[in-house]
Specification:
Length: 526
C-alpha cells in the first residue's frame, strides 16, 4: 500500500494550521503523560512516596522570544568610576643604579565605620538689657544625632531590612551610644518631608499614568491583621496599609491624601454602575451642594438627605461614599483614562480594568486532574494559552488592527471549547466571561499582560513583615509605607537611595532630584 501524499504546509489555511497544531500538541501531551506514568512506576519500584510539588507555571518566561545574539557587550572599567581619596606610596627595595619608571597603581576599596562626635560650642551672650542670647543651631542639626548617622539608620532599616534590635547592636558595636527608644525616634519622628514627598510621588504618578498595576498582601498594625496595598508602574511605587480589602479603602488609597468628597458626573456615573437606587442618586444630584471638605461634612450631608437611615441593598451610604470618593479622585485630575491592572480581586475592578494573564493561566495550571484524559485535556488547554500568550506579547511589540480581530476570534475558540472535563470547562467559561478585561491589551498595547511588577514590589514588605512583625503607631505605619515607596521609586528612576537620603537630610555633597518632578518627566507613553 502506497504512503499518503504529503501536503505542503504552505497550502494550508490558518484554521487548518491551527487544527493541525492542536492535534500535534495533543499527541505530544499524550506522550508526555505516558512518560510521566513510566517515571511514576519507576519511582514506585524505587520506594519513592508522595506526590511531587507543583512547580510554578513559567508561562511568562517560557514565552519570551529567543535572544537576538549571544555576544557579550563591552564593559567599561569599574576603577574609572571610583574617586580616589588617598594616595599611599609603597617603596621597593632595589639595587643601586636602578632607574625609576613611575608607579603601578592598585586600587583598594575600603569602608570607614567609626563614631564622629562633634561638640557644638554655642556662644552665650548677656545683653545690656539682661537678655541671654545663644547662637542658633547649625543647619541640618536636629537632636543629638547628625545627618550621616540618620542616613545610615534609615538606609539600614528600610533598604537593608535590618531589625531594630540588630541595628541597635550594630551601632553600639561601632561605638555609637544609642538606645532602642532613641533609634525608633530616629526612624519615625520628624519625617514629615519624606511623607509629603511620598504623597506627591503618588499624586504625580496617578495624574500621569497610562496604567497602574495593583496588588496587596497581609500586614500587621497595632497587633491586628491589616492589608498593605501596592500600586505603581514602571516609574513609581506607593504603599498604603489599611484595615481591610474593601473597595472603599482602595478608593481612599487612590485619592492620594486628599480628604474631600465630590458629587459630579463621574461620581453619579459610578453610583449608577454600582446599582445605587435611582431616588437616592436623584437626591444627591439635585442638591446644590456638591463639594464636602471632609468625612464629617459628607456624613452630615447624607443625614440631611435621609440616606443614612435607609436599609436597602446595596447599602446606599457605602455606594454613595464610594462614588463621592471616586468623584474626588477625578476632580483632582488623578487616573485620567488610566487602566488599572490587577489579579482579579474584586476591590480593584474600577473603570478601565485589565486582568493578569499569569493569574488566569495559573488557575488552569493548578487544576487537579484524576484521569489520563483529564490531564491530557488540561495540558492541551495550557499549551493553547501559552501559544496565545506569546502572540499577545508579539502584538504588544507591533500592534496591527487585522491581528487584533484574529486574536479576538482565537480567544473565543480557546475558551469556548468543551473538553469533557467538567471542572475545566467551567473554568474556561469563567475566563471567557472576563474576555474584555483579558484582551484590553489589544486596545491599549502599553498595558502589561501580568502583575509581576506589583508582586515584585511587594516582596520587601513581605520580608519586613516576617522579620520585624508589625507597626505599633500611626507614625510607624506611615513611615514604613512611605519609605518603601520612596526606595522603590528611586530604584525605578535610577536614583541612588543613599544619595537621596543624604540630600534630603542635608549631608554635604549629596545630591538627588525631587522625585515627583522626575516621575512627571518620565510619563509612561500613551
Amino acid at each position: 500500500m502506497s504512503a499518503p501524499a504529503k501536503i505542503p504546509l504552505s497550502s494550508l489555511s490558518r484554521g487548518e494550521l491551527e487544527a493541525l497544531a492542536e492535534r500535534l500538541l495533543a499527541e505530544n501531551d499524550a506522550l508526555k503523560q505516558a512518560v510521566a506514568g513510566l517515571k511514576a512506576e519507576v519511582a514506585t519500584l524505587k520506594g519513592v512516596e508522595g506526590r511531587p510539588e507543583v512547580k510554578p507555571s513559567g508561562m511568562e518566561k517560557g514565552t519570551e522570544p529567543a535572544p537576538a545574539g549571544t555576544g557579550r557587550g563591552a564593559k567599561g572599567s569599574k576603577s574609572a568610576r571610583l574617586a580616589v581619596h588617598e594616595d599611599r606610596v609603597v617603596a621597593a627595595d632595589v639595587p643601586a643604579g636602578s632607574r625609576f619608571k613611575g608607579y603601578e597603581d592598585f586600587l583598594v576599596q575600603d569602608l570607614v565605620l567609626r563614631p564622629h562626635v562633634v561638640r557644638l560650642r554655642r556662644e552665650r551672650w548677656l545683653t545690656p538689657d539682661g537678655r541671654t542670647v545663644v547662637a542658633p543651631m547649625p543647619a541640618g542639626i536636629a537632636g543629638h544625632f547628625g545627618p550621616e548617622l540618620r542616613r545610615f539608620v534609615l538606609a539600614q532599616y528600610h533598604q537593608g531590612q535590618v531589625t531594630v534590635p540588630r541595628l541597635v547592636a550594630q551601632l553600639r558595636a561601632i561605638g555609637v551610644l544609642i538606645s532602642k527608644r532613641q533609634l525608633v525616634r530616629l526612624l519615625n519622628r520628624g519625617q514629615d518631608a519624606f511623607l509629603a514627598e511620598a504623597r506627591e510621588v503618588l499624586r504625580a504618578g496617578l495624574a500621569t499614568a497610562s496604567w497602574v498595576s495593583v496588588d496587596d498582601t497581609g500586614a500587621r498594625h497595632r497587633h491586628r491583621n491589616a492589608v498593605c496595598t501596592q500600586l505603581g508602574d514602571d516609574r513609581f511605587a506607593a504603599f498604603a496599609t489599611t484595615a481591610s480589602k474593601s473597595r472603599l479603602n482602595f478608593l481612599q488609597v487612590l485619592r492620594a491624601g486628599y480628604a474631600d468628597y465630590v458629587i459630579d458626573a463621574e461620581a453619579l456615573a459610578y453610583m449608577r454602575r454600582r446599582s445605587l437606587a435611582g431616588p437616592v442618586i436623584a437626591r444627591l444630584a439635585e442638591h446644590p451642594e456638591y463639594h464636602f471638605a471632609d468625612e464629617a461634612a459628607w456624613h452630615r450631608h447624607l443625614d440631611r438627605l435621609g440616606i443614612i437611615g435607609l436599609t436597602v441593598t446595596p447599602d446606599p451610604v457605602r455606594i454613595a461614599t464610594e462614588g463621592a470618593v471616586w468623584g474626588s479622585i477625578k476632580a483632582h485630575g488623578l487616573l485620567p483614562d488610566t487602566v488599572i491592572l490587577s489579579d482579579d480581586a474584586g476591590q480593584f475592578a474600577l473603570d478601565r480594568h485589565a486582568l493578569c494573564w499569569v493569574h488566569a493561566e495559573r488557575l488552569v495550571h493548578k487544576l487537579d486532574t484524576f484521569t489520563d484524559r483529564q490531564h491530557a485535556a488540561q495540558q492541551l488547554v495550557r499549551a493553547l494559552i501559552w501559544w496565545f500568550y506569546a502572540d499577545l506579547k508579539a502584538y504588544r511589540r507591533a500592534p496591527e488592527r487585522r491581528r487584533r480581530h484574529e486574536l479576538r476570534a482565537r480567544f473565543d475558540r480557546i475558551f469556548r471549547r468543551r473538553t469533557g472535563f467538567a471542572t475545566l470547562d467551567r473554568l474556561l467559561a469563567r475566563l471567557h466571561a472576563n474576555k474584555e478585561e483579558l484582551l484590553l491589551v489589544l486596545e491599549r498595547p502599553e498595558v502589561p499582560l501580568h502583575t509581576n511588577g506589583s508582586e515584585r514590589d511587594l516582596r520587601p514588605q513581605v520580608v519586613k513583615r516576617k522579620l520585624s512583625g508589625g507597626t505599633r503607631s500611626e507614625a510607624g505605619r506611615a513611615c514604613r509605607d512611605a519609605f518603601l515607596g520612596l526606595l522603590l521609586t528611586c530604584a525605578k528612576l535610577g536614583v541612588s537611595f543613599w544619595a537621596y537620603l543624604g540630600h534630603r537630610l542635608g549631608v554635604t555633597g549629596a545630591d538627588a532630584p525631587y522625585l515627583p518632578d522626575l516621575v512627571r518627566m518620565r510619563s509612561a507613553p500613551a
